[in-house]
TrEMBL record:
Enzyme Commission code(s) on record: 3.1.3.48
Domain of life: Bacteria
Organism per entry: Gordonia amicalis
Keywords of the record: Hydrolase
Protein name (record): Tyrosine-protein phosphatase
Amino acid sequence: MTLSSSDARLRTFANLRDLGGLPLASGGVTVPNVLIRSDAPYPADEDPAGVPWPPSTVVDLRNPTEIEPIAVTWPSAVRVVNRQVSSSARIDRLADTALIEIYSSVIRTGQHRLTAALNEFDSTGSTLVHCAAGKDRTGMVVAIALLLAGVEADSVIADYQRTEDFIAGVFARLRERRRIPAGTTLAAPILRTPREAIDLVIDEVTGTPGGAWGWFEAHGGDVPRFERWVATFVG
């Protein structure tokens, strides 16, 4: 679909942010230009302002069938990996499903998919993590990454819920490109960021023996590799 000039506001990410500056439980803050989260990019999007661009690595959490009709061609220097997290979290299929049900399924049956995505983080450059809305699949992967890095739980929750501030723009981009069922409104459960959904993820990951790192290792996480990424992220 070609967007008209009047749709210029739809030509760049609606839910993109650099995760630098988050407080660490041990003191200090996370380093900028290391981890970026966003909604999906689309062909003809303009480069976002205020973040290093393009990223060194892109970790796309969508299913291949979501990507094919709207694939983006990244510069050749960008490493792009697709690590499908879960079809149950697709915003275009489960608009009326409670998020707590979706998150429960993903965090309890798809742990190895989540760690596979984390294993792709770039310890020498910036990593962009995205799905369709940059909220659910991205929200879970990013939350686990932040917990592993030692970010305070309250800040993990606050970052997850920030998407609520940008959801109208996300919704407009999805609707313009027919990536969400007709008749879906902003009141749909899939477009919310309820505290209990992210609490479920945090409790499941940190409640494992050994905490977040114990959970990560038990489900296929590459501990030495991710420790190198954390060292970059926390400075």
